[in-house]
Structure formats: C-alpha cells, structure tokens
Automatic annotation (TrEMBL):
SUPFAM superfamilies: Homeodomain-like, Regulatory protein AraC. Gene3D superfamilies: Homeodomain-like, Jelly Rolls. Residues 182-281 form the HTH araC/xylS-type domain. This is AraC family transcriptional regulator. The lineage of its organism: Bacteria, Bacillati, Bacillota, Clostridia, Lachnospirales. It comes from Ohessyouella blattaphilus. Coiled coil: none annotated. The keyword Cytoplasm does not apply. SMART domains: HTH_ARAC (SM00342). Keywords: DNA-binding, Transcription, Transcription regulation. Pfam families: AraC_binding, HTH_18.
Amino acid sequence: MRTQEYDLTYNDLNPTFLFSCNLERVEDETNYHAHDFVELSIITKGTGVYHIDGVDYPVSAGDLVVFNPGTYHKSLVTNPDYHTTEHYIGFSDIHLRGQKANILILPGNVPVYSMSGKMKQEVLNICNRMAKESAAASSGRYFLLKAYLIELIVLILREVEDTSSNHKGYVFESPYRKYVVSQMINFFNDHFSEKISLDQIAQNMYLSTFYLAKIFKSETGDTPINYLINLRLEKARELLEEDSSASIQDIAEKVGYEDVSHFSKSFKKHYGIAPTKYRSDTI
C-alpha cells in the first residue's frame, strides 16, 4: 500500500486535544513554568505582558502566543483596570514538515505573532466556538473541539507559509521586530571578538538578510556592520585605557580584528587618533 503524503505534516494531522479555556488575567501569574506539550494563548481582549524564557513581550488583543515544550513563561498584568482575556489551548502529537515533532514555529521564530485582517477574525471566531462547545458539554464535545483545533493549526501554518513565500524568508511587521533587533545587539555584545556572519544570523532567525539589515537600520539608525564596527572600536578604546601591558595587536585580536594595520586605520578614522597615541595620551 502506498504511503499517504501530506503537504503540511509528515503524517496525518491528528493532534491529541488536551484542553481549551478562557481566563481573565486579574493578577500576575506567579508560577514561571513550562509544559511537555504545545500551548497556544490567543489574546481576545486587553493588553498585558508575557515573560517568556527571560524576555518580556507586550501583548494585546489579536496576538497569538505559542509556548512550545520546554518554553518557560508566565503572564503579567500591566494595567489593573484593563485586564487581558486569554484563550488557552493545549495539544500534542503533531509533526510538521521541516520542524521537530510537537513544535510549532511562528513567522520570525518568535513566540508572539500579531494577527491582522482575515486571520485575526477567523482565529477569534474559532475561540468563540471552542468556548461555547466547552460550556455546552454535549456529547461528542472532544471531537468537535479537536476539529476546531485542526482548523486553527491549518490557519497558522498557512499564515507561516504565505509570509515565507511572499518575502523569501519569514518577514513580519510587528512590535516584535524590536525583539529581533535586541537579540542581534545582545549577540554582538557577546560575540564581538569572533567572526560574525549576518547571513548566518538571518538564517538562524528565519529571516532574509536584506530584511534583517532593513529592520536593524530602522530601529537603530545604523547598519548592523557599522554597529558592530563601532562596538569593537569602543571595546578597543576601553582596553587601551585599562590594560597598558597588552600590545596593540593583542587588543586588535580581542575585539575581532585579525589585521592590526586595518584595526589601527579604523581606530584612527573613528576617533581621529591612532591607538598608540591614544594610549600614551590617556595613561
């Protein structure tokens, strides 16, 4: 018998539905926790913040949040007078093409996605139907809730697919572009002494190199390369002031320059003075 092939999954899309519930967030969630299943949160009303794997993400009505297995998270209240209403859905046993089993990745490889237009309307409609079905407790409830879940997963996968095909990489216009830029800056701060490839960063973040450079320039006013150069030269300046025993070549290597001559020219162009002269004037 010929094995059935599917366009979105490696096998039949047959998730195990675990739960569906609405929650009005009136106080901070104290339990910073993770699951061994996929959990979705759809913000249906209000605004708030999710603390996810050490990063705070602002959320508002129409946002979709994915907590994959092992992702630590908790929900926080930002305005006691304007609570968020969150619709939670838990499930397991999916294996999507190009991804590990029981993993659902959103555009941009970030846990929060701001829905708009038709998708937002359809997802919120599914949440309403799930809430009514859960409350009714009629026979066959599990199977109808599972059908709604499958519909929701397909909508999400179509959005990911459309975003990818339209922009040759996952491109998203949302407040979370600030998160992408902050991650790049953190990476530069941690690895400025190493060889850094913008192409590799873009690949790891599921974004095109062009778009990554574009949003970085939009958020910081500088290109990623110039930002990295300025960071390296600033670190070099600090080392020249702090470590009088290190040679100029040693300092150049510590801030990511293999060619000491190129480092010296870049330093003089940036600060208007050669590194050797800068050291003699400041010590």
